[in-house]
Write a structure and sequence with these properties.
Layout lengths: L2 E6 L10 H13 L7 E5 L14 E8 L5 H19 L6 E8 L5 E2 L2 E2 L4
Parallel strand pairs: 1-2, 3-4
Antiparallel strand pairs: 1-3, 5-6
Helix pairs in contact: 1-2
Length: about 120
């Protein structure tokens, strides 16, 4: 059950229509998870500073069970997420940052229990 959160200083009107759905499909493909399990949040127009600069930027947080736990996994994921984000947001790679967080099934609550028991 991947969680993807995109924070950007770009105003909402500069984001492509359907960006959340595009990120959902891309995440499913990149992480090898069904789209029905992917959760996406997009927050735009945020006051942000990346690497000391307030120029337009974005930060992506990717959290998931079992597929973001190693440097080798994340190296491949990073490259593919950067391809999606640079194309969708029109930002150069140096204005984008990605953070990966591995999750355990007991850390995700769903249907009155945790994923461990589903």
């Amino acid at each position: 059950m991947p969680f993807v959160e995109l924070d950007t200083s770009l105003p909402a009107e500069r984001l492509p229509p359907g960006l959340a759905q595009t990120l959902c499909a891309a995440t499913a493909d990149i992480l090898g998870k069904p789209a029905e399990r992917v959760n996406v949040t997009v927050r735009s127009g945020l006051p942000m500073v990346l690497s000391g600069s307030a120029e337009p930027c974005a930060q992506l947080v990717v959290s998931s069970i079992g597929v973001v736990g190693t440097a080798e996994q994340n190296k491949g994921h990073s490259s593919r997420f950067f391809d999606v984000l640079t194309a969708q947001l029109g930002l150069s790679p140096d204005r984008i940052l990605i953070r990966f967080y591995p999750l355990e099934p007991w850390q995700i609550g769903k249907n009155r229990t945790v994923m461990t028991f589903l």
